[in-house]
Design goal:
Elements: H1 9-19, H2 24-34, H3 39-46, H4 50-70, H5 87-106, H6 122-142
Helix pairs in contact: 2-4, 3-4, 5-6
């Protein structure tokens, strides 16, 4: 992502981390908008309808707000827990996460040529990352 001089180094690091939660198209549209381009100018630049740019920007802003709310100081969401769990309980948690992710996916209208993944809430990414970590822990436990 392009770095702009008007930001402090600390803000850049936070923004880069936040930008990673966005899809490639959301990131591009968001950064162009931050650079002062209008939605119409962005649409012309990326050769997309203005309605898609507006939608991308809306979803990017929503996802950034969800991210910032989840990681806000005082929420304790990032605090590690010491929580023993059996392999059977872990399997149930994985099944529950899979159901949760499917439910979130079913709420999103999938159309070819659209950025439907960009419409998923930030909590989907948390559930997906947690699934990967839990599967890794489960596999390590089996060996």
């Amino acid at each position: 992502a392009k770095m702009r001089d008007r930001r402090t180094e600390g803000a850049l690091m936070v923004e880069e981390r936040v930008l990673q939660i966005l899809t490639e198209q959301q990131r591009e549209v968001y950064l162009l908008r931050q650079d002062g381009m209008t939605c119409k100018e962005i649409a012309e630049k990326i050769n997309a309808p203005a309605s898609r740019v507006t939608s991308c920007l809306k979803h990017a802003k929503r996802k950034i707000a969800e991210y910032e709310s989840y990681h806000a100081t005082g929420t304790n969401n990032d605090a590690p827990l010491d929580f023993p769990m059996t392999a059977g309980e872990l399997r149930l948690v994985l099944e529950g996460l899979d159901l949760l992710k499917r439910d979130m996916e079913s709420d999103v209208h999938r159309r070819l040529g659209t950025d439907w993944q960009g419409c998923l809430p930030y909590s989907y990414q948390i559930a997906d990352d947690l699934t990967v970590r839990l599967l890794d822990a489960f596999r390590k436990n089996e060996t």
